[in-house]
Amino acid sequence: MKSPITLTIGVIVLAIAAGPLIYFDSIAMDAKSVSSEFARLEKAGSEDPQEWFDLAAAAREAGELEIAGNSLDIASGYGLSPVLASLEKARILVISDEPDAATAELRDVFASGFTGVSVLLNDPLINSMAGREDYDELVAEMSVQAFPCEHQEGFRDFDFWIGEWDVHLANGTYAGTNVIEPAERGCVITERWIGASGGTGMSINYFDKSSGEWVQVWNAAAGSQIVIRGGLRDDGMALEGYIHYVANGTTAAFRGLWTPLPDGRVRQYFEQSNDDGETWTPWFEGFYSRRP
User: Fold this and answer.
1) Pairwise CA distance, residues 44 & 106, whole Å
2) Which of 31, 93, 108, 177 is most buried (most C-beta within 10 Å)?
3) Nearest C-alpha neighbor of 220 from the set 190, 205, 199, 206
4) What are the tens digits of pLDDT across the range 138-150?
């Protein structure tokens, strides 16, 4: 049976794969209650790591840091997650005015494979160390591991296309609007197109790290499906593959080129081949101007 403190302190959920550490409000305990609960658990011979962990957190909040440390050690001895234990130990060290030791504790848990930098940033107590050189360096190193697409070469090659755009044909005719946005911490670029006549379409664009190629997968309400891949050249992002028309079941070779222009616009040029790439016919040419 759970003790009263287990029911009142609240629940801490750690999802190491996703990173977040979520806190639910707890009921504060005073120093006397903390001491009484420690004695009760000790007398009962509790081997429940969660009970001891909850007591450690309550003791820390009550300022009873010795009890907090002892409770945490007991919880660890009974199998508490090493990550949870290290994070709580870091909190205790922060309150004890030992930021160097707190950062060293966090660095140790990072070295063990924990990359949940969001846990640190969303924890008011731990992140109170922001601005300290050692802590900021640790956060930066963890961010590289936690969000690799934001830091690795290749993922930024298509950033010149990101923005909210008005699109016109070569003769100046308005063609529609396109919103190009980064997503998933730089791992994906999404496209949402609305044509002047009301047609819509969207694409997912991403850097395929395994092949070193950029990929676009497009689908439109009218049933055009495009899958093209390639990479950045001197004249822009060049992707090639095929287009499939759902309505009539035909498939043809297809390619696109996005070129950043000196005046800040982007030219998008699509071509289709009906003879397996022997000859190419213009399919769409649009000039992107950033919306005010």
Assistant:
1) 33
2) 93
3) 199
4) 999 999 999 999 9
Q: Does residue 258 carry a pLDDT above 90?
A: yes
What phi, psi does 155 have (nearest 5°)? -70, -15
Residue count (the chain): 292
Q: Could you tell me if 136 and 130 are in contact, meaning their C-beta atoms sit under 8 angstroms apart?
A: yes
- Unique residue bearing structure tokens 């160097």: 100
Structure confidence at residue 139 (pLDDT): 97
Distance between the two ends of the chain, CA-based, in angstroms?
63
Q: Crossing angle of helices 31-44/49-62, nearest 10°?
A: 160
Q: Which residue blocks in the chain are alpha helix, DSSP H?
A: 4-9, 31-44, 49-62, 65-77, 82-95, 99-111, 117-121, 133-146
CA 62, CA 11: separation in Å to the nearest integer?
A: 18
DSSP state of 153: T
- How many other C-beta atoms can be found within 10 angstroms of the C-beta atom of residue 193? 21
Residue 11 has pLDDT above 60, yes or no: no
Its pTM stands at: 0.75
39-80 pLDDT per residue, tens? 999 999 999 999 999 999 999 999 999 999 999 999 999 999
What are the structure tokens assigned to 71, written together? 């409770």
